[in-house]
Design a protein that fits this description.
By secondary structure, this protein is mostly helical. 71% of the residues lie in helices and 0% in strands. The protein has one domain (11-20, 28-93).
Amino acid sequence: MALTPPLTWQTVETAMCLWEAYLTADVHLVGEPKARLDVLREKEGTAALRSTIADLAPACDAAWDAAEKAGTQHEPFDWEHCPRWLAQWALDNLEPTEED
């Protein structure tokens, strides 16, 4: 998966929100999900992790849109949805750390 032009402002903003969620790692992105992302960063480098996270923006947006259509989206996009979504993605798609 790779972001390809033309990019919408929504996609760019979502990518920035996901990257911010990783950098600020608060109550939603801690423990095992954060550790898995950190391992990816250590193995592949910061640029690769940033690119991976940016590539996730369309899927994160789709999850938000689906929840809105279902009437189940009741949290702020940037401070709640994006960190929770990224944490779940890490759990579903990245290898467990040695501590897990």
